[in-house]
Protein 1
Amino acid sequence: MYNEKVNDLLKEVKELFKDVNTKKELEDIKNNYMGKNGKITELQKLIKEIPNEEKRDFGMKVNEVKDLFNNEYNKLFESINLKEINDLLESERIDITLPSKKIKRGTLHPMTRIEEEFEDIFSSMGYTVYDGPEIESDENCFQKLNIPKGHPARDAQDTFYLKDEYEKFLIRSQTSTAQVRAMEENKEKGPLRIVCPGKVYRRDEDATHSHQFMQIEGLVIDKDISMADLKGTLELFCKKILGEKTKVRFRPSYFPFTEPSVEVDVTCFKCGGKGCNLCKQTGWIEVLGAGMVHPNVLEMCGYDSKKYQGFAFGTGMDRFAMFKYGIPDIRTIYGNDIRFLNQFDRKDED
């Protein structure tokens, strides 16, 4: 009786896989025959009922059925799997003889390029890049920079104030606010050498001015700092950014937070100082404001002005971008015109 069951199942397994074409059908068959309650599994459970003298023959025949099932199953599984892979490859086949589609290449914004160049130059001179928030208090933006309320110097930087409970705050008009924060955060009140790039906001809107623009300011505080240190730093910077033949000129000026103060001019990069329409026939272009940090600013930020001196400088990075890339209108820098941005492809430089 037991041998008949094994022989019947053996015949059944031999015919089992003839019409199977999918992995789903294979899986169903495996569950029906090798699962917890499968036919081959049930046959194996019968061995405990068989007399001892018949168990060996019965076990061998059950193993024969089991081996046959596994061999046929594995063979068909590989066949179906290979067919599926080939079908997938065929459906996703690419004709490599056809010309490829041109991939549009992104470019860095000109202001990003200028900012990176500025930071690289000053980092090589030992400066740390310091970032500050764009929303600032009136105290940090003006008062601690020696511009008290009612001071006429505020008119030149008339900016955007916030209302209601935030009326003492505004969108910063200069990155000098980051310098104030850096001085206050320096608890040891020791030497400091930083540059502060970022966006600033003023009420301007014409071809050479924008209500939003990029500025970078530098600050050095240490003992025995003089105007000669400032002059050497700015001459090196201007030559690095505009070319080794660039000449630098310092003119007396006024800024509330520096004393003495200077305006910094460079020889016109277009005409080399001979005079042209760009420099209005003067041969010079104004690019920077600078000076020795006012003692009042040092004291308000916690420094002993009798022990420490410093110099500060600032410039609009947009202006340098206009000079360097020949951009006639500052407003195009922020216009998001893809035709304008595509001109600054770094492909040749890479």
Protein 2
Amino acid sequence: MGKEALDREVYEAVFSEGQEKERRLQELKEKARAMGAYPASIYPLYRKMAREFPGFTVPAINIRGLTYDFARTLFRVARELAVGAVIVEIARSEMGYTRQRPLEYATVVLCAAAREEFPGPVFLQGDHFQANRRVYLSRPEAEKENLRNLIKEALSAGFYNIDIDASTLVDLSKETLEEQQRPNYELTAELAAFVRSLEPEGVTVNLGGEIGEIGGHNSTPEELRAFMEGFNRCFTGKIGLSKISVQTGSSHGGVVLPDGSVARVQIDFDTLRTLSELARREYGLAGAVQHGASTLPEELFHLFPDAGCAEIHLATGFQNLIFDHPALPTEFRERIYAYLKENLRGEWQEGWTEAQFIYKTRKKAFGAFKKDWWDLPEKVKVPIMESLAESFTRLFEALRVTNTLNLVTDLIPRPG
């Protein structure tokens, strides 16, 4: 298939509807595989990382909009820098507000990898497969079924890396850490066993858990032990978690100031180092995972591998680059902001300035204006993608994942 023909087929599939959309996406996913792009689990690399930290931190990148162009840019830079250790992910919440279900997301990303002739495995990750606390407390079985259905949908699409997040259920009203973490580790263990029961033959899904909801107090060694000891007691399978997400001072999207700028993130790298070392030494995990750090100044990213951090999740910084890029037409940006003020006014919290409201809600415009984003002319998209490429280059170099392609392909060979 010609490259331009692939571009056209991806676009037409994404904007089809119903069964026709699913059929087109499935066919394209198979075409991408035939062209050399295949989904895989990063589990073998994380097992190696658990035995001896390799000196790099794996970036996990959430793509909320301009998905095909964004992913093509990512894989092009990864190919040029021989990056094999990189994850592409989407969270449960993002699937909703960006209007990207697992099959669509997986197909678009795999086609982007094929289009750029990326030679390594594609690690698709379900980020924050998170229990909704309000729903769970009122109807726990219904929320469990929601999560099981999401897991089934993701696995069938090729998401062989899943982060289970029941940290929303941590009950700080309980006296002991073990009791505080009990709802978290019990549900995490139950869902982990469910994932293992559905694994495709020859695939060990890479699983993560989370001990503290991002944005709360910093995690402690005692909390990590309480969670992992409880999980290990409850988990009925043979292969459990590979990594653990912790809180070290960050927040998703960063803290936005009244003028719309983002406050400087204060990551506690000593906590991150301590928890990563403990996770490896006592529980055989790859290490700790850092969320909510994409608005951190770029000159600090080299500190994550220094701290032994296994994985870092990045979304908002790239979103900000896109929205604030000088190539994005002012009229288009203002049309989005007018939509937010009219349709999402209920999310405008007391005391927020307009700039704070726009910053916190504009991610939801990726779904509402999905086709408009895809239809932006090349004269707009090209400079945005050039800026993204520069950002990826600096990120990959700081996290030290350049020249990891051979390591990854040796551990995770192409399926026969």
